[in-house]
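=== RUN LOG ===
request id: a7f3
mode: sequence -> structure
chains: 1
length: 268
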Amino acid sequence: MSTGLGFFEILLILTIVLVFFGSKEIPHFIREIARIMAVLRKYSDKIRREFDDAVRVEEIPVKSGVNIEKEKIRENFISIRRQLPLDERIEKSVAIYEYLKSTEIFKSAASVMIYVSTGSEVATRESIRDMINIGKRVVVPYCIKESRNLGIAEIRDIDNDLVAGSFGIAEPQENLKDHFFKSDIQLILCPGVAFDMQGGRMGRGKSFYDNFLREFKGRIPVWGLAFGCQVSKEPFPFDYHDIAMDQVVTENGFLLPRTSKIEQIPAG
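=== RESULT ===
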């Protein structure tokens, strides 16, 4: 935001102050100008951030034909997943984590970003506990509603570092947020309502993960965790902001071919 005062205008005002009020008033005048400009910068930055957030939200299509089709698929797979008995979900979740632990990429990753499970999702709390116990740095996400994006935080104690957050999902304590560098994440594990045979991911339709993952895709491995009943044999309708998984791990093993590319962590 411009203050409307250039160098020559300020110089002219200083001259007038000097002539009519004397040199003693110049320091006071300079302090006042600095204070006013600081306030203007503060509010201009705030307005710009709010405008940028509003633009990012508006970029997400509200009701396209693709979104309507996705909503039908989403409702179907949520219903299927909820029908799994609790003991079966727990058993399958343990099997998924065992497959995950068998990979070289997991063994080599010093830091892992993983969601805190809720409802009928693949359970992750015991997996998180084990990762912490074996010495991995564990990063969990939280929702930033204004920008439909995710923030991150490292947790060291799953019993004490989490609180109730947005959408009924556990998130890190406020004092833990945003102290972990995104560039230090070496593996990202994502939830999903469903996945297709090409790694396409169906989320909850709010785009938080897609917005977050955009800067990581192709740089570090991005994997989905899912029960076998969440896998669609038919490809999902694709939207421009959708981010596909590099791999999907189920209780039956790996959905996509395990290639040397997937089994390596990019340097840096």
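=== NOTES ===
The radius of gyration is 25 Å.
The mean pLDDT is 84.
=== END ===
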